[in-house]
Amino acid sequence: MSNRLADDVAQREIATEQHYVDAVYLRLDEAAKAAQALAVEGHGRARLGHEGGLVERDAMVYQAARRIAALDAAHEGLVFGRLDLVDGQARYVGRIGLRDADREVMLIDWRAPAAAVFYQATAQEPSGVVRRRVLRCQGSTVIGVEDDLLNSEAAPDGMAVVGEGALLAQLSRARDSQMHSVVATIQKEQDEAIRAPSRGVTNIAGGPGTGKTVVALHRAAYLLYTDRRRFEHGGVLVVGPSAVFMSYIARVLPSLGETSVTLRSVGDVVDGVTATRHDLPEVAAIKGSDRMRRVLARAVRDGVPGGPESFGYFYRDDRLLLDPLDLRRLRGFLLSGGQRRNRAVGKVDKHLLDRLWRQVRGERGRERGKEDFVDVLTSSPEFGEFVGAWWPPLDAVEVWQWLHDSERLRSYAGSDLEPSEVEALLRSWRSGFDPSIEDVPLIDELRYLLGDVPDDAVLGESDDDFPPRQPTSFEREEIQTRLRVTARTEDDSYAHVLLDEAQDLSPMQWRMVGRRGRYASWTIVGDPAQSSWPLPHEAELARAEALRDKPEHAFRLSTNYRNSAEIFDLAAKVARLAVADPDLPQAVRRTGVPPRHRVVAAGELAEAIRASLRAVAHQVPGTVAVVTSGQRRPEVAPMLAGELDVFAERVFVLGALDTKGLEFDGVVVVEPAEIAAESSAGWRTLYVVLTRATQRLVTVSTNASWLTRLEG
């Protein structure tokens, strides 16, 4: 077929699809107006003047708001698929389901069972499908169609087949700063993972570029569709490696009509604490180790810095005294049996008063009895001030800051940390309250060990002999101020947890995420060959503890859609050097452009980086990343200020660890040998960096030893 004839056929098919898409959008507008009318009617129910009307109002307004949000989210790329079946019917697939005024199906939701064949049919097993068509749209305008003819024998005469195939067309497009839904081009092995049973743990494995992340996000949308009551009420938590990554994926679920999902980076999991920087690898390895559990457990049992070490009081004829030994023993008693510190806040008065009452020997004191004794002490400012200072409700961040004191940390370390490790931790905390990503799990562990202050927020426990002492207004304010990190540790669990780049989690991070998924089903995405955590066996034990024997289902994605074969050939050499028997997917696309390596003198490095960035940015229309070791990044970013001004939002300067989960049309890697040497997992990190590039890859270095090692 000549190019002109092919263009004529394509335009005729586009016009046909546009006619149908116009009808669908007209119905979408009608549905939106109906939802808005429902909201208006719901607000009107509030004027009925009784409680039932208010309940009806809330229910109607909620349902209307949810429907309006779904319709708004689906507007872009609403219709993306068509199936022509052997029985002559045509079915259209889209982001949501729609029916016409006669209740006939106009559009099938991509998550519905009836739409599964759109993704699962192949030429080998067409499942009744003759032609699968993907519609490319901008807003409500059809700009192209891409066809796959799956059953040529059943195709009627004159059936048009247009384009190079939807997947190849999608792969050739430029990237921007956001991940997009691939709902139109999901492949069969990906769809099987998306539609896996909701119970237990679904593991999605595969090498770089296999679509693990976007498949997992589509799975979250699928689960919400199939069991909305469970997953919307219980919540879906998506955890990724960095704030940059979370920003990158932020549009995917809303574009699929799902806006009720919580997205958090590992530095943002704990409410009230946000961290964006990594510690040096040797420090990160200490903070992430399971040994830190015991260090933190000792910290929460310690006395409050600057707190009182004794308490004395004159009562009638007696001098009452609790000395340091008495208070240490009482603290140990209150924390015995696994009691969490903040949960004991309501018991402190009772036990202090009990110990003090035992010291009352004088005749006047004994004659008046316990009731007078309790009344006198609980109304005493001295006693109230002592209790508030000796056993205040504690905030996890506050206790984390106790670790910054060298004397305390050495005491807490015991035999679990070497002196050199203690010194490394102290150096990392010199900046005070500026937690790193690796500090966040420590704060969460402290939060759990401390527990919640009882709901009544009293500083005594009700009982016949010892009625509770109500806190003063000052003490109530202190409780609220100190507990600025969310303290509801029992209410953290979600209905589903989606964990991306799971191979990077330290044991302490596994414990943090595990608390959010005690009763949840899980989707876990990862590739051991890309792990930046140096002790995988320790992390595996923590993973098993977090998942608590939940049944597991495994899916492996085998095709690399991201990298050109030329780029992945280089990355695969690094992977084989980094780990034994890495899971290497097959790259399906070639550009004819191999990676370029520039080796320059030290004084020429800055200009070589700038020149390489300019060259790559002119060669590709989409995004470009300049990637360095974590330590070198602060000096590279300023030297590229001019280029960043020219190329604006297309260019990103990132540390190696910050590239996790991202992809760019072009990547310039600065000093690959430094990335490989930055930690014991450095070669695996370099593998990650090299596989971020889809079209162009350039390395710039003053040391070519890493290339020599690859060829050796």
Topology record:
Blueprint (H helix, E strand, L loop, with lengths): L2 H43 L5 H24 L4 E7 L4 E5 L3 E2 L5 E5 L6 H5 L8 E10 L2 E9 L16 H6 L16 H7 L6 E6 L5 H15 L1 H7 L1 E5 L2 H7 L2 H4 L5 E5 L15 H8 L3 H9 L10 E5 L2 E5 L1 H11 L13 H10 L5 H16 L2 H10 L5 H7 L3 H8 L5 H10 L11 H11 L22 H10 L13 E4 L7 H9 L5 E6 L9 H12 L4 E6 L1 E6 H14 L7 E4 L6 E4 L5 H15 L4 E5 L4 H7 L1 H7 L3 E5 L8 E7 L1 H6 L4 H9 L2 E9 L3 H7 L1
Parallel strand pairs: 2-4, 7-13, 7-14, 8-9, 8-12, 12-13, 15-16, 17-21, 18-19, 18-20, 20-21
Antiparallel strand pairs: 1-2, 1-5, 3-4, 5-6, 10-11
Helix pairs in contact: 1-2, 5-6, 6-7, 10-18, 11-17, 11-19, 16-19, 17-18, 19-21, 21-22, 23-28
Description of the molecule:
The chain is an alpha/beta fold. It folds into 4 domains: 169 residues, no CATH class; 153 residues, P-loop containing nucleotide triphosphate hydrolases (Rossmann fold), CATH 3.40.50.300; 118 residues, no CATH class; 150 residues, 3-Layer(aba) Sandwich (Rossmann fold), CATH 3.40.50. 44% of the residues lie in helices and 17% in strands. It is built from 29 helices and 21 strands. The strands form 5 sheets. A 6-stranded mixed β-sheet has the order 3-4-2-1-5-6, covered by helices on one side. Strands 9-8-12-13-7-14 form a 6-stranded parallel β-sheet. α1 packs antiparallel against α2, α6 packs across α7 and α10 packs across α18. The longest helix has 43 residues. The radius of gyration is 31 Å and the shape is globular. It starts with a helix and ends with a helix.
